[in-house]
Amino acid sequence: MTSLRLLATSIAITTAMSSAAFAQTTLTMWYHGAGNEVESNIVNQIISDFNASQSDWVVEIQSFPQAAYNDSVVAGALAGNLPDILDVDGPVMPNWAWSGYMQPLQIDEAKIANYLPGTKGVWNGELYSIGLWDAAISLVTRQSYLDELGLRTPTLAEPWTGEEFMDALAKAKASGNFDYALDLGTAWTGEWYPYAFSPFLQSFGGDIIDRSTYTSAEGVLNGDAAVAFGNWWQGLFEDGYAQATQDPADRDNGFNSGKYAFSWNGNWAALGTLDAYDDVLFLPAPDFGNGSKIGAASWQFGVSAASEHPEGASAFIEFALQDKYLAEFSNGIGLIPATASAAAMTENYKEGGPLAVFFDLSEAQALVRPVTPGYVVAAKVFEKALADIANGADVQDALDSAVDEIDADVAKNDNYGF
């Protein structure tokens, strides 16, 4: 009889465990990091930890190469087979939300109150995505270069003015010690242009689109401030300070091999530069009259509109917001932790760390790209205008044409709901 009771109890326990396992609901996730082993390992560890932490949900991931990811999401949306969890590039999120690819997150926003502003994906007054990291650009140089050229070392509190910046470039060129005074990274195309260069426009007082209405670029992309920016931009190349066409190898290694006095580059490249020199400086953006500006917003997590389990997908994203994961991403791929408390857990971004300045730059100077579904079109138009101007096009004509294209797209899409 005792044996029968034990057998019955064992069967009951086994049945209960099996029922619990079968009760778990699978959540699918798409991610852009295929091919990046370090990043993939961290994401998979978060998934493994989440799956083991509760009995309601099981996350399964499919990774895509970054270059093909956005197209895969668009195709998936059209085919009706989006996953539960997406990651999305911050400036693209409003377009995906407006297009019906995403739904608002169901997370406790108190948990992200201390996150860097650029990590929060807000559209139409609602939180759609959240990032575990951000990225920031600085003006990279060496203290020895500043000393040799007799230049003031700018600070976050007192960045260079536009005039000081141009004086620095002129002195670097006149020294004859460099192939070019400034590495702008023009070997890179696509999102680099609006991310890296529109902050210069915004510091002049212009913008890609009028953010007060989001219905037109008229006046902000072709007004006096924008034309002043365009003339300055064109002068960088006409006067021989920078290259309109750059060899990718020079972008990758030019500053570290002494070809440039200054480089406009991101924190993701900073460790390599620190390895090359022991007196590297990561300086704030120059102020052209309307404050120092740099870009903000990197990859973020969100829930697809197709998900039948948004509460589970949101639960996974909220689980991933732990400081230990933010720190792991930072240590693994070098990006800026989303919180100061996570930064304190890292070697590079803790107080006194070699990259701590980037957290401060992101906190103080970062400006998200225009928060509009039309950004995906406007970004490409802006890139073309800047490339044309760099190659000698008439500044006013190029900017007027850009405004016409952006405004036509906005009108065609009924002002994107604005």
TrEMBL record:
Residues 1-23 form the signal peptide. One of its GO terms (molecular function) is maltose binding. Coiled coil: none annotated. Keywords: Periplasm, Signal, Transport. InterPro entries: SBP. GO terms for biological process: maltodextrin transmembrane transport; maltose transport. This is Extracellular solute-binding protein. It comes from Devosia marina.
